[in-house]
Sequence to fold (264 residues):
Amino acid sequence: QNDVRLFSNHLLKRVNRASPFPPPPTAEDLAAFNRRRIGGPTRANFTLDLNAYRFKSPWNLAAAEVFAELYLSQRSRVTDDRDFVIHVFLRHLRDLRDQYRDLQILELPSDDERRIAMAERDAKKTVHSRRYGVRMSTVHRRRAVAQTLHPSLKKYVSLIDKMTVDGMSDDELDPESGIHQKWRIIRLVWRSNMLNALMHSLDGLHNYSRYSLENKMSPGQPPRDRRVSSLVDDKRQAPIGLPENCYDEGWLAGLTAIERAQLR
Fold:
């Protein structure tokens, strides 16, 4: 990952986090590329769509292809796995987008505007950090269930490892839940119903395993009362390399050829 970061700075002609970025593509550039594949990032003009609603935009996916080609031609001693290089670059793209937004805040004309923008940024980061921690606990819990509860579940360990923390869904507190807190599951748009059902089953097995024969729960935080909802997260990057039936059919049908190739 550090080598990808350094090579990204080299292509973007940046020295460190405080260095400016090359001008991002204009709305006209993006429209021409998205509709007719005219233009786009190249070796000589390596630019990123850092204002994209989804960081895995067609422009950025094309940039990842260019990045991998250049990286492998110059850094083959590190790795020759093209798909892995693309995956790591796309993960690094999140950090690049944060750096770009921080630089935009510093360019605001007044101290008050900068303070407000920083406060909003920090609040979002706090929420993101809290949710990341919950998802990481979910990964460990589900992996432990698959590894230890029954031999027939061990085949799912590698699947959970491939999903990583990014493959776990978030939830949010239902404001109408009252004293007994209920949490609304935020469904990941790329996940199939089959994969959702498997993850929910592993959670159910974990909750069941915490009760003794006397129906007493083991010490620790009680499990969240998570409920299916209509909330959807369409921004998170789908993990690569999962079996095809783990991805939602409708979501797959809406991908470009480049986006589908990234999943392999």
